[in-house]
Each structure stands twice: as C-alpha cells, then as structure tokens.
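Box 3.1 A note on notation
Throughout this textbook, protein chains are presented in two layers. The first layer is the amino acid sequence; the second is a token string describing backbone geometry. Keep the layers aligned when reading.
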Amino acid sequence: MLNFAVCDDNIIILNRLCKMLESIFIENNLDAEIVFSTTSTKKLLEYSQNNNIDVLILDIDFKNEISGIETGKIIRKNNKNIYLIFSTAHLEYVLIAYKLKTFDYLPKPVTSEKLKETILRVFEDVSERTKETNFIRVGKSKVLVKENDIKYIKKDGMKLVYHTNKKNYEVYSSFNQIQDTLPKNFVRCHKSYIVNVNNITNIKSNNTVFFNTNEYCNIGPKYKDNLMEVFNNGNSTKYLDSFDKRE
C-alpha cells in the first residue's frame, strides 16, 4: 500500500484534491490511502517525522508558513524515496521544484485528468522498481506491499494470503506462480507457508517459527533443512531472539 499526504493552504483546494485522489484510487483499483491532509506545512513536517509517507502532493506558495519548496527540502532529506509532486499556479517555481528530484508538477487548477495521469505514473514507476527496491507485488494484482511488512504468505485453498504488519491481502494464485519472483529472504518452510526470514523473531524446538505479533508458522520436515541452511549460511540468525542449532 502507498501512503499519500496532501498539503495545500487553501482548504477548498485541499478537500477537492483529496476527493479526486480517492476517486482515482477506487476507479483504478489502486492500493493506496490518504493518511494525512493539512493546510499547514508545520503540521506536515511534524507528521512526517514519525510517520511514513510514500507520495506527497504539496503546494508551493504558503503565505504565513514555511514554503512548499523548503518543506520539500526537509522531507526529501529525511525520506530519499518519497515521491514529491508539487502543485502551484506560479510557473516561476517549476525549475526550483525539479531540483528536489520532483516526480511531477501539477499546474493549478489541478484537473482530475492530469492528477490521474500522474498517479498512474507513480504506480507504474513503483512497479518497475519492485525488482530493485523493497516492494513486492501481491500475486498478479496491482497491489504493492513493502517487503519488510510481509511476515509470511499462506496457501489457503486456491488463494494465497499475504500476512503483513498492517493487513492481510488475498489473491488467487499459487506458490509455483510467485516463488521465483520473491527475494531470497522468502523461504518455503511448509507446504502451506512461505516465510520472510527477516521478520522471524523466534524458532522453537517444536518446529515452529514466530513473528513479533505472536503469529506463527509450522516447519514441515520436507522444508526444514532448506530453511536451516538459509540461517546457517546467511545473516538471518541476527533476527532471532533464540535459535537452537540442534533442531
């Protein structure tokens, strides 16, 4: 899921942008949500310090607060991967905005067509980066999930269920269809489970792996040696609270 934030000092424009975004998400089946919207760059900076933002749509001209350009500089410094999208009616700001590795520029008044085009390009770009960055596609759907958020993938009949820190995602697929597309830290530990070894916190002697949410998966005899080889030959043991090598 991509987290969006919107900041504009005009409350009418802000609300309009949020409504257009939500419609675009629904109409195009995009896994995204607006996690924060505000008319204040100060509040935006406060929020960004302790919360993740993947895409930021930011006005440039703020009369009584930190400008959008300065706000963008601060946020970009702390979040190298954020997609910055600036909106303004002042064309003279365009070249300055692009120096901040701006993904796109939305001239005001922002139209639904232009906004949709930009948002779809964001998702296309994220999709292209999944091979190089930490996003994983859920089956063959348009849903993109951060690699580190996935604890394990469970086979449930004709479906696969991706268990993440925030929510679960279901898709009609099979392990054979996805296994070769997953990073090396995703290991088959059971006929019904593929686990993200980076999120395992404990391995018990009863052949069970645990995660920080007290969720667990069983280790099948057929897959045990391969799972242990990953730990023994890699750096994965640093993620465990306890590890019994006699198992």
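The CA atoms of residues 106 and 112 lie 11 Å apart. Confidence is low (pLDDT under 50) at residues 235-247.
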